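If your schedule permits, I should be very grateful for your opinion on a structural question. Thank you for your consideration; the sequence and its tokens are set out here:

===
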Amino acid sequence: MSYPVRSARQRIQAEHAAVVEGVDRVATRIAEPWDTARTTDRNAVVDGLHEGLEMAGVLEYLPRVLVDVVEAIGCELRAQPVAAPPYVVVTSCGPILRATIDPGRLVIRFDAFEVVRNCDPRQPPAYRRQDGVRVHVSLE
């Protein structure tokens, strides 16, 4: 297990491209009705993502992605993950998978939106649809 982050990313690319595509499709549907490139309605993004991922069957599949990635990097999970916190969390950027494994905390992010902060602290942040979905893997 010399390069777990790289191995995890490769596993997602090779075996779970349909999940990345599913997140991308849902995020695109959420952003379609916006009349600008962004929105300040965080709840619309988070709730829309959660509902859309659930309807598409992606949300219930995410724990399997986590199990597969952990096995692919040669580790074991302490418990069977479910499609809910602390293992799967839907945020304003996209779904996040988390697991505590022997070398540390594995975090897999599927970022479909980015948070754009305003320089005026009284203004709410905006959420902008990214071009595609960026998969970030870290071991903390």
User: Anything to note?
Assistant: The chain has a mean pLDDT of 94. The chain is about 40% helix and 30% strand. The first strand starts at residue 38 and ends at 39.
